[in-house]
Design goal:
about 270 residues; mainly beta; 12-stranded antiparallel beta barrel; 1 helix; 13 strands; about 5% helix; disordered N terminus
Length: about 270
């Protein structure tokens, strides 16, 4: 009886560890004392069809590192840093910029995580020097003669609420976020930005993860309305190492100055925890 009890506890412990190490889960945070790392690289292109002045095209590559430290099993301290290399063309002129550093620090807390229902809240402060319409599909700084621009470093605070329910065969989820510029000049980028998404996540045989969502973003400053579809396929080499391919495609987008937005992103990610 004693041996059976130990065996049962061992199996339960392994199952809990496996669940905690499901790195691709939309509600994942590292366990207490653990560090989770996500390294991402993506390539993207965009096209802004400004009907009164012409077409602005942009190409970018971004390398990003996200780190999270588990303060408790459901609460983490988060940080990220990235650089974007851009090339933009507008009115027969080409502009390149190899130094566009963004960084962010924040925290994530799983209000509900031990049941089928999931609820997560997060908050962060960040700064962006990105000089174009960038990999996060936002207008934050000046972009190659387009009607969108911001002088100097863009500073902001943001918050997000995410909820989901594990149905067993898959987990549907939805999220909403708000971003508020701070410490901006009076004529800078000072208006709120909103976002919402709905999607589903599935882990198959503890090896293959599938995640897809439809997202809407609105930037009040530049009257941007953007609909994108996003997808990621991950493969678990081990429970602590996951490689994935992800992509984003603009289904529909428009902005002020009678501007239509088109674009797509393809990228690679490597996740681990230790």
């Amino acid at each position: 009886m004693f041996k059976k009890t130990l065996l049962l506890l061992g199996v339960m412990s392994f199952a809990s560890s496996a669940m905690a190490m499901e790195l691709t889960n939309p509600f994942y945070v590292p366990a207490k004392g653990q560090v989770a790392s996500t390294t991402s690289y993506n390539y993207g292109k965009e096209s802004l069809n400004i009907r009164d002045t012409g077409i602005a095209k942009g190409y970018f590559q971004t390398l990003k590192e996200d780190l999270s430290f588990g303060l408790t099993d459901n609460w983490s301290l988060d940080g990220s840093i990235s650089n974007t290399w851009t090339k933009e063309t507008f009115r027969s002129q080409t502009d390149r910029d190899d130094m566009n550093v963004d960084w962010k620090i924040g925290t994530t807390y799983n209000v509900l995580s031990d049941s089928k229902a999931k609820l997560q809240v997060s908050a962060a402060y960040g700064q962006s020097d990105l000089s174009s319409f960038g990999p996060d599909r936002s207008y934050k700084a000046n972009g190659a003669g387009t009607p969108f621009g911001n002088d100097g470093t863009y500073k902001y605070v943001q918050g997000q609420v995410k909820g989901g329910y594990d149905l067993g065969m898959l987990m549907p989820y939805a999220a909403a976020n708000i971003e508020a510029p701070v410490f901006q000049s009076s004529d800078g980028n000072n208006q709120l930005k909103y976002g919402a998404e709905a999607g589903a996540y599935k882990l198959i045989c503890n090896k293959l993860s599938l995640d897809g969502n439809l997202r809407y973003d609105y930037d009040k400053e530049y009257k941007v309305n953007l609909y994108t579809v996003n997808a990621e396929v991950g493969y678990y080499f081990t429970p602590k190492w996951v490689g994935s391919v992800y992509g984003s495609y603009v289904l529909d987008g428009n902005a002020k100055e009678r501007t239509d937005i088109h674009g797509n992103i393809i990228g690679l990610r490597l996740r681990t925890a230790f």
